[in-house]
C-alpha cells in the first residue's frame, strides 16, 4: 500500500495542535539535512580528484546521518 503524502496545510485544518507541531518540526529536519549535505559537498571539493578513503568514509557517515534524520521525520509524520 503506498504511503500517504503528508500535507502540512491539511494537518493545520484538521487538528491545529498537531499540525502546528508538525510544521515546526519540518524546518528543523530540512536545516539539519541541508547542513549535512553542505558538509558532504565541502569535503568532496576539498579532496578534489584524489581518492581518499578517509574522506569517503566521512561522506558516508554524513549521508547516513542525513538519512537517519529524514527517516525519523517520516516516522514521526506517519504516526500522526
Outline the secondary-structure elements.
Layout lengths: L7 H7 L1 H32 L5 H27 L1
Description of the molecule:
- The longest helix has 32 residues, at 16-47.
- Helix content is 82%, strand content 0%.
- It has helices spanning 8-14, 16-47, 53-79.
- The chain is built from three helices and no strands.
- The chain has 80 residues and is mostly helical.
Number of helices: 3
- Beta-sheet strand percentage? under 5%
Using the alpha-carbon principal axes, give the shape.
elongated
In the predicted model, the low-confidence regions spanning at least 5 consecutive residues are: 1-20
Helix content: over 70%
Output mean pLDDT: 77
Q: What is the CA-based Rg, rounded?
A: 17 Å
In sequence order, what are the helices and strands, one letter per element?
A: HHH
Number of strands: 0
How would a textbook summarize the main sheet?
Answer: none
Termini Cα gap? 18 Å
Query: What class do helices, strands and sheet pairing give?
Result: mainly alpha
Amino acid at each position: 500500500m503506498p504511503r500517504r503524502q503528508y500535507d502540512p496545510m491539511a494537518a493545520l485544518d484538521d487538528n491545529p495542535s498537531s499540525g502546528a507541531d508538525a510544521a515546526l518540526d519540518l524546518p528543523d529536519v530540512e536545516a539539519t539535512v541541508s547542513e549535512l549535505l553542505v558538509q558532504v559537498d565541502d569535503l568532496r571539493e576539498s579532496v578534489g580528484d584524489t581518492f581518499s578513503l578517509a574522506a569517503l568514509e566521512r561522506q558516508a557517515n554524513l549521508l547516513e546521518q542525513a538519512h537517519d534524520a529524514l527517516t525519523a521525520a517520516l516516522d514521526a509524520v506517519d504516526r500522526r
